[in-house]
Design brief:
Distance between the termini: 49 Å
CATH superfamily: Aldolase class I
CATH architecture: Alpha-Beta Barrel
Structural class: alpha/beta
Helix content: 40-55%
Shape: globular
Bound molecules: erythose-4-phosphate
Strand content: 15-25%
Strand order of the largest sheet: 1-2-3-4-5-6-7-8
Radius of gyration: 20 Å
CATH topology: TIM Barrel
C-alpha cells in the first residue's frame, strides 16, 4: 500500500518526503485554508515539486460545467495534479467528461460502496472513502474500505484505485493495508505518531549508554 499525506503544509510535506515514505499528497479547501495558501496555484505547484506523485486539488464548483472548467485549469498547472471531484450527480457527469480527456480524478466524500462503484464506472482514477468520518458517527469506516476493495477486485474491468482517506490514528494505516486499499492518506500527525514507539526510545538509550561505557572502559 502506498502512503499519501493529507495536508497542504509545505514544511510538513518536506519533512515527510525526506523520510522517503510519500507517494503523493491530498489537499482539500479546508487544508489549503489552514496552510494559508494565498496563491493556490503556486502552492500546489510547490507541493508537486517536493513530492513526485499525484497531488489532489479539489474543485469548488457544484455544477458539471463549472467542475470541468476548474478541473481543466488545475490539471494544466502540473502533470501530477489530480482533480478531486465530490460524488454528486453533477460530479459523476464531470468525471465522465474528464476521464475521456485523460484528466485523472480522485472522487471524494465517498460514504457508501455504490458511490464508489459509480465513480469507477464513470472513469475515476481514485475513489476516497472517508473512513474516519464514518467512525466519528459510530459506524465502522473500515467496512466501507473492505467492501469497495472486494467489489473492485471482483470486476476485472475496474482499474480505479481505492484511496483510504480521513484516517485518524496509526491503526487505521494498518487496517487499511490489511483491507487491501491501494493507498492511504493520513495527516502528518498520524504519520509521525506511527513512527514512534517507547521501546525504540528505551532500546536506543541503552545501546548508547552501553557504547559510552565501553568507550570509557577502553580509555
Ligand atoms: C481526503 O482526501 C480528505 O482530504 C481527508 O482525508 C479528509 O479527512 P478529515 O475527515 O480528517 O477531514
Amino acid at each position: 500500500m502506498k502512503l499519501f499525506v493529507d495536508t497542504a503544509d509545505l514544511q510538513e510535506i518536506r519533512t515527510l518526503a525526506s523520510w522517503g515514505i510519500l507517494a503523493g499528497v491530498t489537499t482539500n479547501p479546508t487544508l489549503l485554508a489552514r496552510a494559508g495558501a494565498r496563491d493556490v496555484r503556486q502552492h500546489i505547484v510547490e507541493i508537486c515539486e517536493i513530492v513526485q506523485g499525484p497531488v489532489s486539488m479539489e474543485v469548488v464548483a457544484t455544477d458539471t460545467e463549472g467542475m470541468v472548467r476548474e478541473a481543466r485549469e488545475y490539471a494544466s498547472w502540473h502533470p501530477n495534479v489530480v482533480v478531486k471531484i465530490p460524488i454528486t450527480e453533477a460530479g459523476l457527469a464531470a468525471i465522465r467528461i474528464l476521464a475521456q480527456e485523460g484528466i485523472r480524478v480522485n472522487t471524494t466524500l465517498i460514504f457508501n460502496p455504490v458511490q464508489a462503484l459509480y465513480a469507477a464506472l464513470a472513469g475515476a482514477t481514485y475513489v476516497s472513502p472517508f473512513l474516519g468520518r464514518l467512525d466519528d458517527i459510530a459506524t465502522e469506516g473500515m467496512t466501507l474500505v473492505r467492501e469497495i476493495v472486494t467489489m473492485f477486485r471482483n470486476d476485472p474491468d475496474i482499474h480505479t484505485q481505492v484511496l483510504a482517506a480521513s484516517l485518524r490514528h496509526p491503526r487505521h494505516i494498518v487496517e487499511a493495508a490489511k483491507a487491501g486499499a491501494d493507498i492511504a492518506t493520513a495527516p502528518p500527525a498520524v504519520l509521525k505518531k506511527a513512527l514512534h514507539h517507547p521501546l525504540t526510545d528505551i532500546g536506543l538509550e541503552r545501546f548508547l549508554a552501553d557504547w559510552r561505557r565501553l568507550q570509557e572502559g577502553q580509555a
